[in-house]
Amino acid sequence: MTSTGKIPYICRLKKTIQYLFLPLLMMTAFACSKYQRVLKSSDVELKYEYATKYYNEGDYAKAFPLYEEIGPLFRGSERSEEINYNYAYCNYHLKDFILAGYHFQRFYTVFPLSDKSEDAMFMSAYCFYLNSPVYSLDQSNTKEALGEFKKFNNTYPTSSLRDSSLVLMKEMNAKLERKAFENAELQFTLENYKSAVVAFNNFLKDFPESSTYKEKTSFLILKSSFLLAINSVQKKKEERINDTIDAYYNFVDNFANEKLIKESEEMYDQILKERDNLITEK
C-alpha cells in the first residue's frame, strides 16, 4: 500500500491496460476517419480500390456503400462484371436476401456469358429459398425459388450444384404440398364438402406422387362425396351418389389401410341404400 492508499499492483495493471488499448483506439479512430475520407472522396478509382480491399477482407458492410456508388459509374467497363457480382454478394452477406436475389438475377441476365453466371443463377434461387417462410404463410417466395432452381437446372444440367438444388426443391415442394393439403382439409372440417372435393382433387393433380397425403386425400374425397350426397337435394342426389361410388372404388382399389377400408365399406353400403331408395321413389 502506498502513501496515497493505492495498491501498486492495481496501478501497474491500469497503466498496462492503457498502454494496450490506447494504440488500438487510435488505430480504430484512424481507420474510421480514413474510411470516411474514402466515402467522401470524388476519386472513383480510390473507391474501387477500397471497395475491393474491404470485400476481399470480408468487411461487406464497408464494401457495400462503395460498390453501390461506383456500380453505375463503371457500367459498360471491364470492371462492371466484378463490381456487380461482388455487390450482389455484399447484399447476401449482409443478409438482405431479397435484394441479393434481385442482384444475382440481374447479374446472370446482364452477363450471361460470364464464368460467374452459373453461381449467380444458383444464388438467385438460393436467396428466394432463404426468404421462403413456414408453410402456413404466403408461399410466393417459395414458388419463385422453385422457378429459379428449375431454370438453373435446365440451363446447367451438369452443374456440381445440381444435387444441392434438388435437395432444396424437394424441401420446398414438401412445404407447398402440406399447405395445399391442409387448405383442402380445412374445407372438409368446415363442412364445405363440395369445395373439399374440388380442393382434394386439385391436390392430387398438383401432387400426383405425394407419399405423405395421397391415401388420406383419396379417403377424404370419398368421405366428402358421401356426406355431400346424403345431404343433397333430390335433383342432385343421383349424380352425387354415383360420384361417391366412383370415389369408393378408386380408394379401395389403390389402398389397403384396414381401418379406412372398413369405414369406406360402411359408407358404400349406406350409399347403395340411398341409391335404392332413390330408384324406389322414382
Describe this structure in words.
- It contains twelve helices and no strands.
- It is an all-alpha fold.
- Among the domains are: 1-40; 191-282.
- Helix 5 (97-110) runs antiparallel to helix 6 and helix 9 (193-206) runs antiparallel to helix 10 (214-230).
- It starts with 7 loop residues before the first helix and ends with a helix.
- The mean pLDDT is 91.
What distinguishing features does this structure have?
single chain, 282 residues, 77% helix, rod-shaped, mainly alpha
Describe what is shown at a glance.
With 282 residues, this protein is mainly alpha-helical.
Topology:
Layout: H1 8-40, H2 44-56, H3 60-70, H4 80-93, H5 97-110, H6 117-130, H7 140-155, H8 162-189, H9 193-206, H10 214-230, H11 234-252, H12 258-281
Secondary structural class: mainly alpha
Molecular shape: rod-shaped
Helix content: over 70%
Unreliable segments (pLDDT under 50, ≥5 consecutive)?
A: none
From the alpha carbons, calculate the radius of gyration and give it in angstroms.
Answer: 33 Å
Number of strands: 0
Q: How many helical elements?
A: 12
Percent strand equals under 5%
Largest sheet: none
Report how far apart the termini are: 115 Å
Order of helices and strands: HHHHHHHHHHHH
Mean pLDDT: 91
